Task: inverse folding
């Protein structure tokens, strides 16, 4: 019975570590993406792009809809390459509008409208907080599972008697 409990604790701990690793990985991805966004706004080259297409992307989950306005912008880089970039913007652009953008020379397809807000939104902070809580819960379950596995294994290794059998053995 306790060997099964030890194996259960080990599997429980492994799943906790998987949850924690997922949370940490998502946090790292989010920080890298935010850093690239801020770096593009801070250090990016400026170009005048023309709005080639505009559309609204709808996402719905559990009956709650979320719409995001997107544009496809075309511009020429400083080295003469023609680039098309898909950007999300709160401002309404129509086909043919001139939009100033910032881009990094090695990634012009990830251009950002120059009028984009430099700070992070509330949703970014909330997402980061949820990921931190998710990671902490995963670490808690990992510690609980591995602790259970160690405790169950140690109770089996004590002179062949488990705590349940100690009162029935005679000296």
Result:
């Amino acid at each position: 019975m306790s060997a099964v409990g030890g194996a259960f604790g080990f599997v429980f701990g492994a799943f906790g570590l998987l949850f924690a690793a997922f949370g940490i990985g998502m946090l790292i991805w989010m920080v890298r993406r935010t850093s690239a966004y801020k770096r593009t706004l801070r250090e990016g080259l400026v170009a005048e792009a023309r709005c080639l297409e505009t559309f609204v992307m709808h996402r719905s989950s559990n009956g709650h809809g979320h719409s995001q306005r997107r544009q496809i912008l075309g511009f020429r880089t400083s080295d003469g390459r023609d680039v098309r970039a898909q950007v999300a913007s709160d401002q309404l652009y129509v086909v043919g509008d001139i939009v100033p953008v910032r881009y990094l020379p090695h990634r012009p397809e990830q251009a950002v409208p120059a009028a984009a807000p430099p700070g992070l939104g509330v949703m970014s902070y909330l997402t980061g907080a949820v990921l931190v809580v998710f990671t902490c819960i995963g670490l808690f379950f990992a510690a609980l599972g591995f602790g259970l596995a160690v405790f169950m294994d140690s109770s089996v290794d004590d002179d062949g008697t488990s705590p349940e059998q100690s009162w029935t053995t005679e000296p």
User: Anything to note?
Assistant: The chain is about 45% helix and 30% strand. The first strand starts at residue 45 and ends at 61. The beta strands are 45-61, 64-76, 82-88, 98-104, 107-113.
